[in-house]
């Protein structure tokens, strides 16, 4: 059964006549993983923001399990995201003066109840057992990204969304991070949707989608530009 289902999703940013995104259909099964590739500006981040409920769609339907995310108001979407979705940002978005453990626990505070042992086990899982008390600002870039991966799993999400999760890392560190993210999603039964322009990352996934084919608004604007 599909965990995530999207129908006739349209997004036009306020004040803009033309939609930047128009996706007729997309689905992701529970526990499955998919990579979406596409060049800069094709709408990948917008797609993830819509699924996470960070922005509201102009039209269409997004459902996650039994919840129709597009029917929710902003506060309800925020609450739903905190309880059901893990998000990995390209630039991590860690609290620099908070410790690794505090950063992971922050991922729990609005979602699952605070579970320090689970937070510690996630940091151990990403190889940071020795750094639990370090501030984020005292970590290398690769270590910061591993804290961000642990935080994304902290609320035991059903879905993890990752936006260019290796964009700030060198090739080898990036490949290791994505391998770790995939393993952790599998271990925790979470579905994973990764967007990236990096083909060496995308090509590792069994299911991969070119966002230019999914997003009909792009082909329309390209036609109009001809
Ligand atoms: N807040 C906004 N207001 C108006 N237009 C926006 C806004 N955010 C994004 N856009 C436009 O939407 C389009 C898609 O942007 P988006 O960030 O989703 O692309 P992307 O594929 O993630 O790009 P990148 O890989 O460079 O991050 C772009 O043309 C961008 O200018």
UniProtKB/TrEMBL annotation:
Keywords: ATP-binding, Nucleotide-binding, Transport
Gene3D superfamilies assigned to the protein according to its UniProt record, in alphabetical order: P-loop containing nucleotide triphosphate hydrolases
InterPro entries listed in its UniProt record: AAA+_ATPase (IPR003593), ABC_transporter-like_ATP-bd (IPR003439), ABC_transpr_LolD-like (IPR015854), MacB-like_ATP-bd (IPR017911), P-loop_NTPase (IPR027417)
Family annotation (Pfam families): ABC_tran
Record domain ABC transporter: where: 4-226
GO cellular component labels: plasma membrane
Keyword Oxidoreductase: no
GO molecular function terms noted in the UniProt entry: ATP binding; ATP hydrolysis activity; transmembrane transporter activity
CDD domains found in the cross-reference section: ABC_MJ0796_LolCDE_FtsE
Protein name, entry field: ABC transporter ATP-binding protein
Organism from which the protein derives: Pelagicoccus enzymogenes
Lineage: Bacteria, Pseudomonadati, Verrucomicrobiota, Opitutia, Puniceicoccales
